[in-house]
Amino acid sequence: MNSIYLFNSIAVTAFGMILSAAFCDILWTWRKRLILAGSMVMVLMLQGFVYFQIGADIVEYIYPLVTHLPLIVVLCFFSGKRLWPVVSVLTAYLCCQTRRWTALLIVTIFSGDSVMQNMAELIMTLPLLLILLRFVAPSVRAVSHYTIFAQWQFGVVPALYYGFDYLASIYTNLLLDGVLIVVEFMPFVCSVAYLIFVVYSSAEGRIRSQLEQTQDVLNLQITQAVREIEVLREFQQKTRAYRHDLRHHMQYISSCIENGRYEQAQGYICEICSEIEANKVITLCENETANLIFSAFSERAKDSGILIAIRAGISQNIPVLESDLCVLLSNALENALHACQRRKEKGLLGKIEVLAYDKNAKFFLQITNSCDEDITFHNGLPVTNIPGHGIGVQSICAVVNRYNGIYSFSVKNDQFILRVSF
Question: How do the domains of the chain map onto residue ranges?
Answer without folding.
Answer: 2-183
